[in-house]
Write a structure and sequence with these properties.
Distance between the termini: 42 Å
Oligomer: single chain
Order of helices and strands: EEHEEEEH
Radius of gyration: 14 Å
CATH topology: TATA-Binding Protein
CATH class: Alpha Beta
CATH architecture: 2-Layer Sandwich
Number of strands: 6
C-alpha cells in the first residue's frame, strides 16, 4: 500500500523572516518567491485567530502548529489522501501575511495550492 500522505517536511517554519523556498516542481506557491511559477500575492494582515477561523472552516484540515505570528496546517485531498503543507507568517515589517502552500508528493498539483490560497484570501475578505 502506497502512503499518499508522505512525510512531514523538516524545513518548515520561519527562518530569518522567510518561509522555505519552493522546490523546482510546479506544485508549490510562496508569496516570498521571486520565481513567476511559484509567486503568489501575500494575504492581507489580520490576527492569527481570524486566520485560524478560516482554516478550520475548510475541509480535511489539521492545524499542526500555531504561535503569535505563525500558523502551519495540513490539508488532505479527499480522494487519495495527498497532504499539502500550508504555512502562514504574519510579517510585521510588510504588514502582510506571507503564505506558502506545497504538495508533499508528486510533480504537478493541477493548480490546487494556488486555488487554495486564493480561496483563503476570499474567505478572509468576507470576515
Amino acid at each position: 500500500m502506497f502512503n499518499f500522505s508522505g512525510n512531514r517536511p523538516t524545513n518548515l517554519g520561519i527562518k530569518d523572516g522567510k518561509l522555505a523556498v519552493c522546490p523546482g516542481s510546479p506544485n508549490c506557491v510562496n508569496s516570498q518567491s521571486s520565481n513567476p511559477q511559484s509567486k503568489i500575492d501575500a494575504l492581507p494582515f489580520m490576527t492569527i485567530a481570524d486566520l485560524r477561523k478560516v482554516i478550520e472552516s475548510m475541509e480535511r484540515t489539521t492545524i499542526i502548529e500555531e504561535t503569535s505570528n505563525y500558523l502551519y496546517a495540513e490539508f488532505k485531498s479527499k480522494l487519495m489522501g495527498y497532504v499539502d503543507d500550508v504555512e502562514f507568517y504574519l510579517d510585521p515589517s510588510d504588514n502582510l501575511i506571507q503564505v506558502r502552500s506545497a504538495s508533499r508528493l508528486g510533480q504537478s498539483d493541477l493548480g490546487v495550492n494556488r486555488k487554495r490560497v486564493e480561496e483563503i484570501r476570499s474567505k478572509l475578505k468576507s470576515l
